[in-house]
Every structure is written in C-alpha cells, then in structure tokens.
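Lecture notes, unit on protein representations.

Consider one protein chain, 218 amino acids long.
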Amino acid sequence: MTVTLPILCDRFNRFNERIFGGRLPRIPLRVSSAATRAGSFSHRTSRSRSGIVHTRSISISSAFDLEPDALDDVIIHEMIHYWIDLYGPRETPHGPAFRAMMDEINRTHGRNISIRLSATPEASRKPRFVGVMELPDGRTGIVVPVRSRLAAMYRDIPRLFGAVNCRWYVSSDGYFSRFPSALKPKLYITDPGCLKAALAGARGFTISSDRLIMSSSS
C-alpha cells in the first residue's frame, strides 16, 4: 500500500482521536519521496517580529510499498514523536518516554510499532524479492524492490552500486520484513551470517526479457 495525502490525513485524524485523545493539534502533513526513511517528524523554530515561531510537520514517504497495518504503525510512530515534542520531556529521539509510550500503545491497541520500521506477522510472511550484492570493499548489501520495479533494479543495481557479484532471491523469511520494499534503489549493508541464515529457504531467480525465471533451489 502506497500512502497518499488523503490516506495520511484520514489516519492522522483517526489515530489522534483513538490513541492520543484528540490532543494533537493539526499540523502540516506531507507525502514525500524519501528513499531512506518511511516517515519523519520535524520541528523547526524561526524568529518573527512577534517572537519565536514553531513549525511542526509529519512526512510519510510514498517510496515504500507497505502493508496497511505497517503503514499505520509508521504514522503512529511519527505521532508519538509529535506527542513527546509537545508534552514529554526533552530527550533523545527514541528515549525512555518515547519507548514507554510506544510499548503502551502496542499493548493497549494491538499495534506493532518499533524503533525501526516494523512489519506485521502477515507482512513478515509476504514473499519479498531480495538482491544480494558483494561490494568491492568486501561488505555485503541487499536491495528489496517492489515487484513493479524488480526488472529495472535487476538490470541497473549492479552498475549503480559497483557490485562484484549479484544474486537474486524470493524469500518469506521475517528477517527481510525490517527492510521496506522500495520504489527507488536503496542498499542496506547486512551481516553475512544473518543473511545466510535468512536465505536458507529462499529460491533464486534470474530475469530474461523482463521474465522472471525461478531456479530449483537457492
């Protein structure tokens, strides 16, 4: 599910009433194309003739293809930041007050919000396309494209990131649910040991003339 401004506005109003008691004043809500984060909360200050002006906003990226519940968790995550900014203590972005409120919302409302982008159990089981790249400096990275961008990324990504070797898999392992399926190339550096374990049940594939060809094993 890709976010739109009407969806974002609807979710903000709904969760403000259900979870935050209607105590979050309406602020600018934006849909961005950020490829590095699914959501963000911003609080900027400026000076005017009448004094200090506070400008707060929430942005949710349309570059990620998320399950509906996962998208809702991202929106609520940013609303927690907004709440802490208004009513909470000054602390680091994901400090004790944030974590306590996140845990309470998860427990009370059956959410699955986490410090990083989380995924629902259903999203964890959803097959994902994973490109595994060996980089010139010895590190291992992965990309997790949406289906509509798979052929283009299969063709372009090795060149974009200078990969020494690139292999592609389809996997339903929950390890990959932490990486949002992206519309734009995004490389995640991973631990080779964890990656090997996550790919144990995966199936490899190649693409020829935009046709996906599955291999018999990983």
